[in-house]
């Protein structure tokens, strides 16, 4: 069972915190895209989030009253799930979403779903229907979590496609070789490749825990250096 704690939102929020938005008026457990943002200002229950953009760098514009769900990551890399209601577009030096936060957030000790932007060289092979594997190709990760990975591919891969992915040796983790199910495939920003998002299907809990620790150690390094990968 997950270790979950409820906190008052106002005691958790700080300007500059990283935010991930993964649900907009949706009950889908597999979001098609996760939007990165940051807290730019706080006025009571109203929070000003840097205007998110999608994978094509288009601003994400909502309708008043839409429900937004996501995660807040503080400077100690603690993760809190939140729910908010979108109000309108505003400006605090930069364009922002103005949202009204729910009065409480949930701290989740299990951080495997938080994606960290990190480039890791990988080898990818597509599984054929007869169980054989296509000739592998080499690429690199765009972001990684304990639950999945996204990477660039020259070819489109349809959701539901099964892959094998092998990484180079990762510090304190080792080499990961696992099956991945494609969950999304979208044209990348350069319009010359595809951004593939996949879910690990047979990663052991031991390796998952090591991977999460490695990813959050990298995130702490980014924070100390004042770098928040987008």
From TrEMBL:
Residues 14-100 form the Type III secretion system flagellar brake protein YcgR PilZN domain. It comes from the Bacteria. Residues 109-216 form the PilZ domain. Gene3D superfamilies: predicted glycosyltransferase like domains. GO terms for molecular function: cyclic-di-GMP binding. Keywords: Cell projection, Cilium, Flagellum. Pfam families: PilZ, PilZNR. This is C-di-GMP-binding flagellar brake protein YcgR.
